[in-house]
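Example 3.2
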Amino acid sequence: MPDPTEPKPAVTQLISLGGAGGRGGVDRGPERRIVLVGLVGAAGFVAAAGVARLIGLGGGEWWLPLHLAMAGGAGLAIAALLPHFTVSLSGSRPAPAPARAVGLLLIGGGALSVAVAFPAGWGPVAVSGAVAYALGIVATAALAFFPARAGLGRRFGVVEVAYGLALANAAAAVTLAILRLTDVATLSGAWLGLKPAHAWLNLVGFVTLVVAATLIHLYPTIVGSRIRSRPALVVLVVGIGLGAPSTALGYALGSDVIARIGAVAVSAGAVAMVMVAVGAWEGRGNWTTDPAWHRLTIGHLSASVAWLAAGIGVLLVGVAADGADPAGWSLARVIGPLGSGMALQALVGAWSHLLPSVGPGDVARHAAQRRELARWATPRLVSWNVATALLTGGAFGPAWLTGAGLALLGMTLLVSVALLGRALVVREPAGGPAPA
């Protein structure tokens, strides 16, 4: 008969991810500090994106804030977390901290260089930044997969395949960006079709797939359920991982058929993601401590799944109606669901969970961090998702919806970043529970 005091498998995994030792007495301290640095850097990019949009940097266009948030914030978080997750799930020794730091510098420095140089017209600097970013993608892949091969634990092959496909899609997206920055695509007139192809590869094939693959193991952990192998996982990974580049290829070739086949495959992957999340939710546990913190992390990641499905639905409708016609592509339509609702919300949910779980500090400090991160949990969840709904509605309706959504999202986002900063410096347990 099972011991009722024994943690569920997902909770056991959580303890493993947060442990300071590891197999064979491996010191996980440097790896935990690298994760922390990456998350803090990602939060900085996200805050910069919010400020840039609110004050109108970049001429009020979406490119600069979106680049800062996705290429900078999401990219740096992925570079920090993806190698951490692969070695944690496989029980292997992490890559050396200096090598991990180089990977973060390539991603963060490359994204920042492009953000500064491209609007200023500094072509060579922007190209150098894009090349550095591409090297960061290669470094992330090497740091994630080579150490994991020596692991003694379960490899979670479907997650590794998903991460590999996501990084391949990112490399393809960066290649297209380099062609744009060197004016090769612009001079040949090909950028008209390559622009939506770049967006599909980056936003769907890279960011969305990494979010989905991470939720395969992180969402059950957060809700206190079991990490199960399901047939839907294959549909999720193949659908998004191969469907996104197929649609991108359709745009590049001007083929309606290829674009639509890819969009349908991605939609099947999104449906599978919802099924995986629902399955984990049905087996959820009952948390008896830190209710506001659990509400925040579960709420953000649950909403992220819902917005992922909504955003892919918007994309499917567009491709079904317009095929591979670049004139039918609209980035504004998916900034709300996939940018704010899925990617940034998943990032906040992940850092709110991971800082007190794998970050430096003892049990008392982690408890204080949970209380800081959970402040105003319910109002923040509501405001974030109302803002996302306003942004999404503004892409199809009156412009004031977009303005209201941006203001509300910016405020909520900056509060989340500020609370992360407070949690980083807290030393002693806070007095009393956080406002929920």
